[in-house]
Design brief:
323 residues
């Protein structure tokens, strides 16, 4: 239950991303700077925290052992996650991006067969390929239906271009984020703490962000003061607070696949917080009755996920070996 609460809190801070990215686009800011500045600003804060904890050198030692591993999965988990998100904000409203992002809940469940879990047997500990947990998949689909209902209120105003450039990139991001996070958890969960993993992935992906920033400078010039400040807020709120909270929550349940799926489902709270944020801060359209129904379904889905994650699997039942 603690991990669920932490996950919901993380979704609140993650929602800042969708609201401010849209605000920056509406004010004429380039998505290239919105994406790169977040991670550039994260580096000094995370370095300071990890150094103060006395864990900076051990992190560097681990990264030197498998540099390609860090670069590859940091690119998947951070670059292929955040660059498409900010790109999508240039073409669609925050509620659309946040709503489409909920696909990541189902994506996390569908990715289960790509990973292994430890299983104690009389002959020792074995690595068993995870299975798709049907209960988690079912409750995830419920949440996805709720997110879809929220978007139906605005569906008539969406053009084909908006759907292509604001939905497709988010779908890519929705699969990349849990894939990168879970791969890092599989390799370093229990060996590196949350701050070390976030800092390591940020440092490993930094060259890509610097290239993106250089291209932004060449194509659009330097960012405005307003965009710089808003990117800084996103870096602290979403990049540090939300990411650390979410990685912490997933780390707590990394050996319990169904609970991990429940924690990943808490990201559905982002669409609720993003919708409310746009109404309050960006004068967004007030939700219709259909949208309120969608919000209730999302909340119901999160509650179902929470109850399902608390159930203990029956022993000696092959069908209960879920992921």
């Amino acid at each position: 239950m603690k991990a669920i609460v932490i996950g919901i809190l993380a979704s609140l801070f993650f929602a800042v991303t969708f609201i401010l990215n849209r605000a920056m686009e509406l004010s004429g800011g380039s998505w290239l700077w919105s994406a790169s500045l977040r991670f550039i600003f994260m580096v000094p804060f995370l370095c300071l925290i990890v150094i103060m904890k006395g864990k900076f050198v051990p992190l560097l030692q681990e990264m030197r052992k498998k540099p390609f591993f860090w670069i590859k999965w940091s690119f998947v988990g951070f670059v292929l996650f955040y660059a498409p998100i900010t790109f999508a904000a240039a073409f669609g409203p925050g509620w659309l991006v946040a709503g489409t992002w909920q696909i990541t809940i189902v994506a996390g469940v569908l990715l289960s067969p790509f990973f292994y879990e430890k299983k104690n047997t009389p002959g020792g500990t074995l690595l068993v390929r995870q299975k798709i947990p049907l209960v988690s998949l079912g409750t995830s689909v419920v949440i996805l239906i709720g997110a879809a209902l929220i978007q139906l209120q605005h569906a008539e105003s969406l053009s084909g271009k908006i759907l292509l450039f604001s939905v497709l990139p988010v779908v890519i991001a929705a699969f990349a984020y849990p894939l990168g996070n879970r791969r890092m958890l599989e390799q370093y969960g229990g060996r590196l703490d949350t701050f070390q993993r976030v800092l390591g992935m940020t440092l490993a992906s930094l060259p890509f962000w610097l290239v993106l920033a250089a291209y932004g400078w060449w194509s659009d010039g330097l960012p405005t003061a307003g965009q710089t400040v808003q990117s800084f807020i996103v870096a602290v709120s979403s990049g540090i607070i939300a990411t650390v909270l979410f990685f912490w929550a997933t780390d707590m349940v990394r050996d319990h696949p169904q609970k991990l799926a429940a924690v990943e489902a808490t990201q559905s709270g982002e669409v609720i917080f993003a919708l409310l944020g746009e109404i309050i801060l960006l004068s967004g359209v007030f939700p219709s009755i259909l949208s309120f129904a969608g919000l209730m379904i999302i909340i119901a889905g999160m509650v179902l996920h929470t109850f399902a994650s608390q159930q203990k699997p029956k022993e000696k039942t092959q069908s209960n070996l879920t992921a």
